[in-house]
């Protein structure tokens, strides 16, 4: 079962990306390094509720 999640920047808390996550195989929160247009650089993006 997949669930739609939102990724937010760890520095400025801007919600930039959405993606799908397989809940049955990944129970922990997703953390990915992606480009933040607000900060202007690559930062850590975390899954939000």
UniProtKB/TrEMBL annotation:
Q: Which InterPro entries match?
A: Ribosomal_bL33, Ribosomal_bL33_CS, Ribosomal_bL33_sf, Ribosomal_zn-bd
Q: What is this protein called?
A: Large ribosomal subunit protein bL33
Q: Name one Pfam family in it.
A: Ribosomal_L33
Tell me if Oxidoreductase is a UniProt keyword of this record.
no
Q: From the UniProt record, give one GO term of the biological process aspect.
A: translation
Q: Which GO terms describe its molecular function?
A: structural constituent of ribosome
Superkingdom, natural source: Bacteria
**Family according to the record:** Belongs to the bacterial ribosomal protein bL33 family.
The beginning of the lineage is: Bacteria, Bacillati, Bacillota, Bacilli, Bacillales
Q: Which Gene3D superfamilies match?
A: Ribosomal protein L33 (2.20.28.120)
Q: Which GO terms describe its cellular component?
A: cytoplasm; ribonucleoprotein complex; ribosome
Coiled-coil annotation reads none
The record's keywords, sorted A to Z, are: Ribonucleoprotein, Ribosomal protein
Q: Report the SUPFAM superfamilies cross-referenced here.
A: Zn-binding ribosomal proteins (SSF57829)
């Amino acid at each position: 079962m997949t669930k739609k999640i939102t990724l937010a920047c760890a520095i400025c808390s801007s919600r930039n990306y959405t993606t799908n996550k397989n809940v049955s195989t990944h129970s922990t929160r997703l953390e990915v390094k992606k480009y933040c247009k607000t900060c202007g650089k690559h930062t850590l993006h975390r899954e939000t509720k």
